[in-house]
Amino acid sequence: MNDSNSLDYYKIVGVSNQADSNEIRTAYRKASLKVHPDRNPDDPLAAEKFLKLKIALEILLDPIKRSELDLKLSIQSSKAKRDEKLNSKRKTMLKDLEERERSFQKDESEMRNKKMKLDELKLAGARLRKEKEEQLRRSEVSDSKSNQPEFNASTSTAKPTTSTSNPTSQPTTTATIPSDLDPLNYTLKLKWNTKHLPKINTTETLQSFILSTTTLSSNEIESILMKPIDPSRPENLNKDIKLTALVSFKNLESFETFSEVGSKDDRWKKFKMTKISDLIDKGS
């Protein structure tokens, strides 16, 4: 059976710790009617409850035992408050530690993502530059062939040329791209949040937005590269997602037309725009 170390006899009787002896007796009589075994034959714990009630009455009516009880209850109350305060501090410390860990992991992840994106931009830029160089080289070869003089049969008996140059040793020219032909100079990196622009989440919606806010036609946009939102994932519907796209224009004139609108039109204020060539120069 539990002793006074683990029982609050004030609660058993149903009085406060300020109750006098008359209040205690009155409360005891009312409580005894509820727990007396004769009145509760179906309650198997009725006898134990009634015995505890009698012990409680005895302790509360004895000044010395009641003082000891008050002291024990006071110590228990103080300990409970200390434990609660300590638990609160522990929870705060644990929460702070978890937040620091999440922040560190987020920073580390952002650094990795930035490096990966920069590497991707460099690869994309190198690919665009190589394609343009190849295109320019083919154009120069075609122009060179079209400018060669036609062979005249009537001159076939002429004296041999005095030139000693070897046709196989003619210097070759390396195609270099002028700045207005370098695709990196008219390719933009766009960044935006779906929270501010929820309807722009695919290459189609982005291209439609570009065409509706500028005088450009669709054939003036060379390509748009981006990873669209997966609509099949419910968590993407109300989530604020950061999107990135690479928009390559047909030529420098188209790029400048867009840039002029983008810098003045308020509808483009929610986008962050950066020229790819600037990003690669900074990262190299």
TrEMBL record:
Q: Which organism is it from?
A: Melampsora larici-populina (strain 98AG31 / pathotype 3-4-7)
Q: What is this protein called?
A: J domain-containing protein
Which Gene3D superfamilies does its entry note?
Answer: DnaJ domain
One Gene Ontology biological process: spliceosomal complex disassembly
Task: Using the record, list the residue span of the signal peptide; answer none if the entry has no such feature.
Answer: none
Q: Which residues form a coiled coil?
A: none
Q: Which InterPro entries match?
A: DnaJ_domain (IPR001623), J_dom_sf (IPR036869), Pre-mRNA-splicing_ERAD (IPR052094)
Listed A to Z, the keywords are: Chaperone, Cytoplasm, Nucleus
Q: Which residues form the J domain?
A: 8-73
Q: Does the keyword Lipid metabolism apply?
A: no
PROSITE patterns, sorted: DNAJ_2
Q: Which domain of life is it from?
A: Eukaryota
Q: Where is the composition biased (Low complexity)?
A: 153-178
Q: Where is this region: Disordered?
A: 78-178
